[in-house]
Design brief:
By secondary structure, the protein is α+β, with helices and mostly antiparallel strands. The chain contains four helices and six strands; from the N terminus they run βββαβααββα.
């Protein structure tokens, strides 16, 4: 069952367990957080703001394999923050080297 939205609008599953007193609610688990080992996920718009490009460009990068993405249950793309930061730092270093 979906109980609502978690971080970045990701669905949150509610886990249930049946016990001697009936059904007990265990707690909420974000399906996206559990899938990526606590690495925060960014939306295409958030990644686009970091690179100063249009969100559609970020989607094209993902389709071309230039940046890894994860699909939500609803089919939306999410990007690992650590990977985005590494690409951003590499782009900055490359830009500095081109200027010298």
């Amino acid at each position: 069952m979906f109980a609502g939205a978690g971080a970045f609008g990701c669905p949150v599953n509610t886990q249930w367990e049946s016990g001697p007193a009936g059904v007990k609610k265990l707690g909420k688990v974000s399906t996206m957080t559990a899938a990526v080992d606590d690495d925060p996920l960014l939306t295409p718009a958030e990644v686009a703001a970091l690179f100063r490009v249009d969100p559609k460009t970020v989607t094209r990068w993902a389709q071309a394999g230039k940046i890894g993405s994860i699909r939500t249950l609803g089919g939306h793309r999410r990007f690992r923050q650590s990977e985005v930061r590494a690409l951003l730092e590499a782009a900055v270093v490359e830009d500095v080297e081109d200027q010298q």
